UniProtKB/TrEMBL annotation:
Organism: Alkalimarinus sediminis
Ranges for domain Beta-lactamase-related: 59-394
Pfam families the record matches: Beta-lactamase
Stated name of the protein: Beta-lactamase family protein
């Protein structure tokens, strides 16, 4: 019966001895009490991660949680590769560590968005300018007045790549740019909220490259990666690092309509195709601004901590406090996203929390961040003075693990009490 259930749910073999697949960065983790948490509360958060792992949908999980700028958790559980649903007992297994880079998928959008805001801070662009002001070819078929800000806030009218586009076009930036320029928007006046799963990144990348004469990878290196001392934190990885990058696995039950239709509409391919693409070296080595930044959980937590600090990191001003404010300012009220068909709040680049409840938990109106393919969650909650990242390697769009994800977010919110401005230590007010 257990084997039948495992096959139906498409899950991994969860080891009986969890300690054998847990790695903890003891040197960097601080005592919860030192940052206003309790040992019991911290244990509840970690138990929620263990419960998620026990669902069998996540071959590996990395967690990094900063509170008041200090690392409370920097740890991992599971296998980088070798324990997928279709792997055998004879497949070589490699245990994950907190230093394992993971593809962030759509959580990459938060980083790309801040790069565009930094470009605006430098005076190179105005977010209210039409994309076509910088890239005239984008004006085709009614897109002349679509602004950079609308692209950032998922109101650009081009939420999906054109139907029947070959999937390998994703790493042919010139060809996909041509297709996006020729496409007709579903709306050109910014009133149509529809999540741009992959398309917006190509548009923003092209604007940045046109204005600066640099690749987006070079600009990321210059503005964020090197100043913040990141080891990874690149769009894709070099060929020599392919063996280090965590493998992703399609998990969970087989999808039917309407979920399968929604995924294909947003990502341009069915679930089987997506499963092939995410571990394709061509995807892993490409530069896909909306979907393939590679980083550790600590690195993306570090990025969001910098945002919470008002753009400052270790004495370096990565960007101005005003740039951070502009990047997290709500654009439009809570409404149904016509791609994901759920109520969402966005800024120009971030997914926002809400009160009394939001994507980042209860009373999360001051929170912002981004998810990646449903199961990766990276966010800041300034009221709780936290920067949290949960990176997973199981791609399961629906399934029995969803309650465990919700309970994890709620456990973080519950056990990281809201703090006053006077209690914050270096947080962005």
């Amino acid at each position: 019966m257990k084997k039948v259930l495992k096959k139906v749910l498409n899950t991994i073999d969860v080891p009986c001895d969890l300690d054998s697949v847990i790695s903890i960065d003891h040197k960097r983790e601080v005592a919860p009490e030192s940052v206003g948490m309790t040992e019991k509360g911290a244990e509840e958060i970690w138990q929620s991660v263990l419960n998620l792992y026990k669902t069998g949908t996540q071959p590996a999980i990395e967690l990094c949680l900063r509170r008041k700028g200090e690392i409370v958790f920097n740890r991992s559980i599971g296998h980088v590769r070798g324990n997928g649903p279709l792997d055998t007992p004879y497949t070589p297994k490699i245990v994950a560590t907190p230093d394992t880079p993971v593809c962030l998928f759509s959580a990459s959008k938060a980083v790309t968005a801040l790069l565009i805001h930094i470009l605006a801070e430098d005076g190179s662009i105005s977010l209210l300018d039409p994309v076509s002001y910088y890239c005239p070819e984008f004006a085709q078929n009614g897109k002349k007045n679509i602004t950079i800000h609308q692209i950032l806030s998922h109101r650009g009218g081009i939420p999906g790549i054109p139907p029947n586009t070959p999937i390998d076009v994703l790493w042919d930036t010139d060809e996909i740019w041509r297709l996006l320029c020729e496409s007709k928007p579903i709306s050109a006046d910014g009133d149509h909220l529809a999540y741009h799963a992959i398309t917006g990144g190509y548009v923003l990348e092209r604007v940045l490259q046109t204005v600066t004469g640099k690749t987006i990878q070079e600009y990321l290196d210059e503005k964020i990666r090197k100043p913040m001392g990141m080891k990874y934190f690149t769009y894709g990885v070099e060929e020599k690092d392919l063996g280090t990058l965590a493998e992703n696995y399609m998990t969970g039950p087989k999808l039917g309509f309407p979920v399968s239709w929604m995924i294909k509409r947003a990502l341009g391919g069915d679930v089987e195709t997506i499963g092939e693409v995410i571990n394709d070296p061509r995807f892993q080595e490409a530069v896909i601004a909306a979907g393939n930044l590679a980083a550790t959980a600590e690195e993306i937590s570090r990025f969001f901590q910098m945002m919470s600090n008002g753009g400052e990191w270790n004495g370096k001003q990565i960007c101005s406090p005003l740039t951070i404010k502009r990047s997290v300012q709500e654009y439009g009220s809570l409404q149904i996203d016509k791609t994901m068909m759920v109520p969402m709040r966005y800024s120009a680049g971030m997914m926002l929390g809400g009160n009394p409840v939001g994507i980042w938990g209860p009373m999360s109106g001051s929170a912002y961040g981004h998810i990646g393919l449903i199961n990766k969650m990276c966010w800041v909650d300034e009221a709780r003075d936290i920067s949290c990242s949960l990176l997973t390697t199981g791609i399961s769009f629906v399934g029995h693990h969803i309650p465990s994800l919700v309970m994890f977010v709620n456990a973080v919110a519950k056990n990281c009490p809201r703090v006053t401005e006077k209690q914050k230590t270096g947080a962005f007010a």
